[in-house]
Amino acid sequence: MTPGPHPTDSATPVVSAFYDRFPYPADPIQDGPPPGYNWRWSHADAYSSCAGVLPPQRQTLRILDAGCGTGVSTDYLAHLNPGAEILAIDISAGTLAMAQERCQRSGAIEQAAVRFQQRSLLDLAGEGPFDHINSVGVLHHLDNPQAGLKALAPLLAPGGILHLFLYADAGRWEIHRVQRALGLLGAGYGEDGLRLGRALLSELPEDNRLRQRHESRWAIDTAHDPNFADMYLHPQETSYDLRRLWDFVAAADLHFLGFSNPEQWQLGRLLQGELLERAQALPQEQQWLLMEALDPEISHWEFFLSNQPLARQGWTDEQELLAAIGTRSRCLWGWPSPNLFDRNMAPLQLSEAQLALMQAVNPEQNLGTLELTLTPQQRCKAAREMHAAGVLLLAKGR
């Protein structure tokens, strides 16, 4: 692990000391690969989600984990992108030590070439370009988040993917109130703050909305002390509404590609009948604004950006689809059984046609020439269904 230069963000010293005290996230370190998967950390799956097609082939995929914490994200990035070069940085020496141990014990360092460095994401001039940048839960802890995004933007390779996670205003109303209360009580950012914070949320009257909200929504997430501290005691935090988020992205000359939790943004979750029809007739941005207004549970934004717009491949043309080359996603659980879990760990039962297609896909052969008894129409139907489920990735035929 290489020590980094002096910090260039005013919040860095106090935030670094906070995470040295409370290494985050608090996921246990274990031997062997991490449990399950997160498709947002698979470059092929993330790019396909944005563009509908696999990314251009690279001799070596280059990834930046900008704010890796205790290495949970780095661990998945290595296992889901074998052979990649990964630079994992963080401002906290304590969390980096845990990240290194995690990736050694999991075998991540055998899957990819991983470098750990104690550096600020503001001090990465000369690094890159990176095909994939992961920065989850980091920029909102800078004193100047905009400077952080502007520092990451030039590190992207042309058409590269940047995955961000930032706090949302509305869904964190009770967290913000508890933070203000603990500040007024002089709780601080250390063990005393932890003790007082837990006491506050257990001793408020049972009918108090802050206590009720914590117990129903956040109690499990904050069972571990570092997670509780990260939520309620953090010394530096910024949150956004959707319009400010888009302004934030535009100021860095980046393109918003869409949310990385698209299921959250399905209007049919909340509306039906005439209301749903009216909502679906709105432009996309207004549909998102409507969902923000209707769903007070949205506590964060997770989304993909790029330095250029990515035209989405729709695969509506049958001949183009038959000429495509299919690859099974790495984010499958249960393969080769017909009873799988899809990329969101939801149950997925394959039909006979879907199973046959998934068994036959070959990275050297287009869908139309696979040795199958399926008609061209049946191949296309199965391919579109599996592609929509995120378990079949497609590349244009060569």
Can you characterise this structure?
This protein is α/β, with parallel strands linked by helices and 398 residues long. It folds into three domains: 12-169 and 241-306, Vaccinia Virus protein VP39 (Rossmann fold, 3-Layer(aba) Sandwich), CATH 3.40.50; 170-232; 318-395. Helices cover 38% and strands 16% of the residues. The protein has helices at 12-21, 43-51, 72-80, 93-106, 108-111, 145-152, 173-184, 191-203, 209-218, 225-232, 242-250, 273-280, 284-294, 318-322, 352-360, 376-388; strands spanning 62-66, 85-90, 113-118, 130-136, 156-168, 239-240, 255-259, 300-306, 325-328, 339-341, 347-349, 392-395. The strands form three sheets. Strands 1, 2, 3, 4, 5, 6, 7 and 8 form an eight-stranded mixed beta sheet that branches. It has a two-stranded antiparallel sheet with strand order 9-12. Strands 10-11 form a two-stranded antiparallel ribbon. α7 crosses α9 (209-218), α8 crosses α9 (209-218) and α8 (191-203) crosses α10. The radius of gyration is 22 Å and the shape is globular. The mean pLDDT is 95.
